[in-house]
Amino acid sequence: MGVDTATNTTRVTLLHRLHQDPNDQLSWAEFVRVYGPAIRGWLAHWGLQEADAQDVAQNVLLRLTAKLPQFKYDPNKSFRAWLKTLTHHAWHDFITEASQRTRGSGDTSVLDHLQSLEAREDLATRVEATFDKELLEMALLRAKERVAATTWQAFQLTALEGVAPQTVADRLGLRVSQVYLAKHRLQKLLQEELRALEGDPDV
What we know:
The protein is mainly α. The protein has helices at 5-20, 25-45, 50-67, 79-102, 108-119, 123-144, 149-160, 165-172, 176-198.
């Protein structure tokens, strides 16, 4: 994810402190500093105005206070991906509740705004696509570390860049069968990594 080891260690320590003591105000302040911009950024991307994004971000933090005491950090899974899912749930609840409150109120401008936000549920496909893209990038990095350089190159050229297997074989000095095997092996590893990343942390 481009995060250096020291920063990553700091964040793991931070999650551990909040797991031990959800009322630790200093740790919460640090958590908001580290993760707050990402939470608000997702909410803005999903169509919320700044004031609403602030409210929903607060709601995300409230949900976290309930969940973190049971949270167990797993280095094989992405806390950020889990946090994004939690934020998306809070966003969806906000849109649903706001729509129900204004239905029949006669406030057409508010209702129009909410309907435009609800239309972004078509956005749900795009939201999930973005989410999946992040997970896929993480899975690709992890799978790459598990194979030889030539195996990765064969997979990258055939599966990611669409180069013909025979061309890849000639370019890398491999047999065509080896190219197909490399592609098959990486696809299997990717599925394993994606399953690991998509698994919910124990809460």
